[in-house]
Amino acid sequence: MEDDDDLDQLLDEVEKKFCSNVSVEPPSRMSGSQPGMCGKSTEGRKHSATKTDQPISSINEDLDTLLDELLEEDYSDSPQQKTKQVPPGTKVKKNLSFQSGGRKCCPVFTGGSAVMNGVGTATSKRSCDQLRCTSCDFRVLMFDDCEWDLSCDYLFLRNNMPDRQKLRAKLKKRRGFRAYACQCSWFSTSEPTDLRDRPRLTWVCGKHQN
Predict the structure, then answer these.
(1) CA gap 169, 63 in Å, rounded
(2) What is the arithmetic mean of pLDDT over 146-157?
(3) Nearest CA to 152 among 178, 126, 183, 177?
(4) Beta bridge partners of residue 133, listed in sequence order
(5) Which range (3-7, 127-131, 180-184) has the least confidence?
(6) Sign of CA dihedral 88, 91, 93, 95
(7) Please, what sign has the CA dihedral across residues 198, 201, 203, 204?
(8) Does 74 score more than 80 pLDDT?
């Protein structure tokens, strides 16, 4: 009997020492646990661990998102990024358009087959071979050593332009001459002719490539 009393007293001391700060769950909330067990049930511990882990992972995700945003802002504010924001090729296109724009005749000349084609100036008087009509918006065709027949008219050009083979039906062979035509006008010459002296012809230089 004394041994049993000593054992009970020892158990009481152990319980007071180790379980004094742990509140015992009420029977209604300790489903599946044995009566007299100290601390929370296994299910309660699992539930508590889940609650603890969830906020930590959420905080980590928020921190990662915040760091990514800060890095993006720093990168967008850097001088290198600001330079890249300018559409690439803008200046290149301007330079190319300036270089490929070519030169225009001033004044614009026409001439016979013996007159050299090229960029016309007041001194060179070269025949322009890049003529375009501002009235019909057709490119002016040229035929060396030919002149237009007197029967050529607007309706003929309207129906046959720009078929060179059909247009030859109204051309006559004549050495040294050059025949010009768009869809609305026609002209033949053997000498350098300044188009300013031919106001009826609405032809302009379409630029010569370098």
Answers:
(1) 84
(2) 95
(3) 183
(4) 203
(5) 3-7
(6) negative
(7) positive
(8) no
Cα-trace Rg, the chain: 49
d(CA 88, CA 62): 36
- DSSP for 72-107 reads HHHHHHSHHHHHHHSPTTHHHHHHHHHHHT-B--BS
Please classify residue 190 by burial: count the beta carbons closer than 10 Å to its beta carbon, then call 0-12 exposed, 13-18 middle and 19+ buried: middle
> DSSP readout, the chain?
-HHHHHHHHHHHHHHHHHHTTSPPPPTTT-TTPPTT--S--HHHHHHHHHHHHHHHHHHHHHHHHHHHHHHHHHHHHSHHHHHHHSPTTHHHHHHHHHHHT-B--BS-EE--TTSPBS--BTTT-PBPS-EEETTT-PBPEEEEEEEE-TT--HHHHHHHTT-HHHHGGGEEEEEEEEEEE-SS-EEEESS-EEGGG-TT--EEE--B--
For residue 57 the two structure tokens come to 């992972």
Q: 32-72: per-residue pLDDT in tens?
A: 444 444 444 445 444 444 444 445 666 666 666 666 666 66
pLDDT of residue 21: 52
Provide CB contacts within 8 A for 194, sequence distance 6+.
Answer: 107, 108, 109
